[in-house]
Each structure stands twice: as structure tokens, then as C-alpha cells.
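hi support,

uploading two proteins for the ticket. first:
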Amino acid sequence: MASDRYSRLVSWLKVLFPLMALGILSTLFLLSRAIDPEAQIPFADKEIQDRLRDQQVTGPFFTGTTVDGDQIMFSAEKLTTPDGQIAANEAETIKAVVDVAQGTTITLTAARALFDVAKDHAELTGDVLIETSTGYRLSSDLLTSAMSSLSLTSPGPVVGNTPAGILNAGSMTLSAPKDGAPPQLIFTNGVKLVYRPKP
């Protein structure tokens, strides 16, 4: 009797196990069809296309030295190489600190910047702010600069505070003389200074 029951059990299991296996396989196939592969991608289609088209670096930071020995520190929120251009970059929310060899520190901030290494040219736009350790705090809509040496130009209006008072000017340049003297700020095109004596 025991051997008959054992034989019967083995016969049932031979049928039951393949049926269970088929049921599990069919469930897996059904689940795989229900999953949308595109839903697993953590980026929107437009963001993927932007990243494929433009090389992008988030939070870049680098330091360097100009030909005159000035130390430069640069940081940004994002740096891109648009349209596959070579040696050209766009940056957002930038900050640059220049420690001039003669001792002055110049800090530049702007919403955007365009750099062209081949042309040794940088262009800062959007709430450009120039601050110096000598007490100048000036704002401009556009500031151009060389990248290998200290040479800044604001072709348009500049307004802000100076050690002597409030200043308005049609344009401004900041450069270092070739004889090793400290950098000079030169204001032109209708300069107006409201003198504010120190208490």
C-alpha cells in the first residue's frame, strides 16, 4: 500500500511541477510586458538630447596663473560646450577671483560668461559685479576680458561705490601696466563722481 501511495504521489508531482513552472514563466512574461522601459529613464527626452548635443560639466572649479604671475580662481554653476564648438565654453552663475601679483584682489561675478580660448577672450554678461580689495564695488551689463593677462573692459556704463564716493562713467578699463606697477582703473565717457567724505 505504501509503495502504491508513493508511486501515485510521484506521478502527481511529475504533472504538478511542470504546471507550476509554466505558471511562473507566464507571470514573468506578463509582468515584463507591463513595464514601460522609457519610464525607467530618470531624464526627460529633451534633457537627454541636450546632454547628447552639448558637453556639460556641473560645478566646475579651476585655478591658474596669468603670464604676469596673477593667480586666478574660477568657479561656475554649469559649464557647457555649445553646438560642438572647439575651445569655446559657456558658463552660468560664475565667480572669478584674481589675486594680482602686486597685492590687489579683484572679484568678478556674473550670471553668464562666454569663453573663447583660441581668441584669448572672455565676455561676461548679466548683473556683472566688479569688486576690489582697494574699496571699489562697480556694476556693469557687459565686461570683456583677456584670459592670459589682466585686461578688463566695460564698453558700456559703469556705476558703483569707490573709496571717494558714488561713481558713474560711460566706460571703464582695468589693466596692469607693463612696468610691474599695480593695476589701474581708468574711467571715461562722461565720468561723474559724487564725493562722499569719510566721517
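and the second one:
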Amino acid sequence: MTHNTPVSPRPLRHLSEVHRRVLTAAQLRSHGVTSAELNEQCRPGGPWQLLLPNVVLLHPGPPTSEERLHGALLYAARESAPGVPSQPTAEDPHRPVYAEAVITGLAALTLHGFSSTPPLLSLDRVDILVPRLRRLRSAGYVRILRTPALPTPRAVTGLPVAPVPRALADAVAELTDAGAVRRLLTEAVRGGHCEPASVVRELTVAKLLNRPHVVDAVDSLLAEGRAIAEDRLYRMVREYGLPDPVWNVDLRLPGGPHLGGVDAYWPEQAVAVELDTRAPRQDEDALWSEYARKREHLERLGITVVYITPKKLRQSLEQQAAVVRTALMASGDRDPAAYVVVLPR
């Protein structure tokens, strides 16, 4: 025997506070609100208002920044089926899942804690990434950006937010002020949000490195990143009790060719450290080949070369100190290295 009795609508009180204030028309229907009632509530001067197409703000007056963000995600998210709202997760029964929608650009950077981006309420628009094949247009304060592959979002205050490098690329794509671009890229590195190489990778994918003001900012970024990495390398030697090396030197064979520069060198143990600060540009393969040739040449001469990336120095300083200490201790078990001339660079 079949029953056509409709399922009782879920009361709005089961939703968390912000999700009681911003809902889609489909979600309201699932809570028993008819189209006629919705139109009546959203009349001019009424208690509700249309925030975006099919997204309703359930109070009069301007939306908060949190409401604007949730509204943007509700507008852009793919619903699981026509008229069925995204379902909460078991871990958080009051938080909906925003399928195929990720906040990016300046709004994402502000959520990540950047100080050089405007406050959320002062942003004229919120950029949302969606899959390229979605049929969805920008509307109101929401700008839709299509992408072949959505980045894996970071959860920031419960919202799906693009990782900093991707958010930076999307923000920079719209900026023509060289100073603003430089401030964003510098804060990304100086604030420890990400490494320069990951930023350059995203800017390359976005085809932004043909813009002179972006290239200038990237050059400053790479210099900033190297300076920070060098400072961490100095700190590693000091804090973990490694013997003092000679810093920033060129190595040469006596009367012979230049062997290359290294960031730190221990002559007695014939151990060199070089910071791998390569940026992933078009000449990456050529740069890596140059690194490999130099390393091979030095190691043929009995010199151990330790390559350390800025990311490793930031995330695992103690581990990198142990790697260098092991190389120094192992020097006694190797054949003596060739004599090389050490010159300041």
C-alpha cells in the first residue's frame, strides 16, 4: 500500500544562525514555504529580501559580511537535486555542503588573514570558482570564475576557500596597480602563507607573467623569499649548534674554472648547502639541469652538496639541521676532497 502523504517540512530552528538568515528558494520550499508566501515576504518593505537570484535574506536591512559570503556560495553551489538543499555533514549537522563552489580572489585572501586586502564588507564583489562546464552567470555582487579543475579548498570559518597561491592569482588577474600586486605577493611570503615557487606556479598557469607590473612584483617576491630563507638558514646553524660555515661563497679549482656559488660551506668537512629557490617558470628544466651539473661536478671532487628548499626550512628546521649534521659527521668516512679555492660572492 502506498501513501502520498508529504514528508513534514523541517523547521528552520534546526539550522544554525547564519543558515537561518540566508537560504535558497529551494531550501525554503523544503521547509514548507510556498512560492506565494515567498513573494509576499520579499515584497518591497517586507521582512525578507532577495539577496541574489534564488537566494533570500530572511531579514530587512543590509547583509553582514558572513551573510554575503554564504549567499554567494548558495548562489553558486550545485544542489544535489532540483529543489533539494545540500545536506549537512555528520561531523557538523548544521553546516551545509557547498558543492562545486570555492571562494577565491580578494575575499579569499581576507579570509586567510591578509592585512593588505580590503575588509569583506567593503568588497564590491565576491569571486567564486566553479567548474568550467557549469551553466552559471555572474549576478549581483558575485563574480563567477570558471576553471577546468577546482582547487582543493581550505576550510576557513567553515567556508570553502581557495588556497592562497590560487586566490592570489585570481586577485592579481584583476589588478593593474603595481603597488597593490607587490603588497599582496610580499605579504603572502613574509606572512608565511606560502612559498614564492607556489605563487609563481599559479601565476604561470594563469598566464599573468606577460604583464610587466606582475613580472616586477614577482622579481621582488623571489628576492624577498630568498632573504627569508637565508635568515632561516642562519638561524638553523645558530639554534641547532652546527659549526659556523663560511657564508655565500664561490668555489673554484686553483687556477681552474669556477665551480659555482653556495649559500654555506664547511671547508674542513667539504660540505656545502645550497638553497633551492628555483621558481617554476618556463626555464625550470634548464635551471634544474644547471643545479644537477654543479652538484655532480662538486661531488666528483669529494664535496657533499645538501639542497634545502625554503619550504623545508619553514616547516622542519630541526630535521634540516639533522641532515646537515649527518653530512658533516660523515665527512670523516670519505676520501679527502679536492682542494678548492673559496671566494666571497
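thanks. also noticed: Residues 212-239 form the longest helix (28 residues).
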